[in-house]
Specification:
The chain is α+β, with helices and mostly antiparallel strands. Helix content is 17%, strand content 31%. The chain contains 2 helices and 7 strands. It has a 7-stranded antiparallel β-sheet with strand order 2-1-3-4-5-6-7, covered by helices on one side. The N and C termini lie far apart (46 Å). The protein is globular. Helix 1 packs antiparallel against helix 2.
């Protein structure tokens, strides 16, 4: 099931294309965000796409494909490009990532091997 949640805690189950567009258009600058999440008992991990409208009038777009190592980020000034990416992701179109320069930021969410506790005897 697809669930949309904004930074104010408003949640919509199975959001329509117009609902997603409205939620995106209503983002305020700063810490406001929109998350579209796939919840499927047969699919392990976290599957989502999220967007923030930053203070500098850019959209920070991120997605995760199941595991922290597969977490990517990009930025754009185009609300239309963000909307097309969100709708493409929702429709599971293979081309939704095109038109962006994606950076893998998975290392932000995985512990370094040096930071893991050493086994004790």
């Amino acid at each position: 099931m697809l669930i949309a949640t904004n930074g104010r805690g408003h949640t919509v189950k199975r959001p329509s294309k117009p609902a997603i567009g409205t939620m995106l258009a209503n983002l305020g600058r700063g810490n406001e965000h929109l998350i579209l999440e796939r919840q499927d008992e047969e699919r392990e991990g976290d599957w989502y796409i999220q967007v923030w409208f930053r203070d500098n009038n850019t959209y920070q777009l991120e997605y995760r494909d199941g595991v922290p190592e597969e977490h990517y980020q990009t930025q754009t000034v185009s609300q239309e490009k963000v909307l097309q990416a969100l709708l493409g992701w929702v429709a599971d179109k293979p081309t939704w990532r095109e038109g962006f320069m994606w950076n893998n930021i998975g290392h932000w969410f995985t512990p370094d091997s040096e930071d893991e506790d050493e086994p004790t005897a």
